[in-house]
Amino acid sequence: MKPPFALDCAPPFLVIRFDDIHRTLGWSIARPGFQYLREIAWLEVRDADLSPDVDPVAFLKERLASKGLAEAAAFMTARDVRRHHLARSQVGDIAATCVTTVGLSNAERVGTRRHGAARRVGTINTLVHLSRPLSTGAFVEAVSIVAQARTAAILESRGRPDEAAATGTGTDCIVVAAPEGGRPQTCAGLHTDVGEAIGACVYEATSEGTRVWRADVALSNIAEAH
């Protein structure tokens, strides 16, 4: 499966490059909200990179600039960026492609918060690319479908019956990207081809990412025990 963009994974960066300017909506750390851009990046970090005296936004922007990515929307993750997951779905004439990195060590359940000692950083950073333009309202609706699909995948992947039902992590980020030009899709809900395509690819990529993350954690725990 060839994605509709260039994907360059060279740790600590994972970079997505579009052929043309795309409109995006999301809450990435760099370039949140509505934007027009060509590149979206993940930066892999460690706890030592983000000590209490470090401004994470300034840190990210400095690293992006050093890589020639000053104009990119960007995420930060403690997950090995080589452990990214890609899924594609085609419904009618709409193609949706998801790229995500998944970590759940910072898991939370919506409506509550965990308090107490700090935990290891873990997050889910999700990009969805659509093959057709979206109206402003459809962009907002599309982001909600991404969040629904991500949450469904997490809820259905619990490792044990007694495990608390997380709905995401405290630092999840989502970006939806669509090309400019042409008649935009005005709706992106669950009854539409757009919504179905988004939901299918995000669910598949997040489910796979969650399974791999749990397997990696289990192997790490075994290694530490020995």
UniProtKB/TrEMBL annotation:
It comes from the Bacteria. This is Adenosylcobinamide amidohydrolase. InterPro entries: AdoCbi_amidolase, CbiZ. The lineage of its organism: Bacteria, Pseudomonadati, Pseudomonadota, Alphaproteobacteria, Hyphomicrobiales.
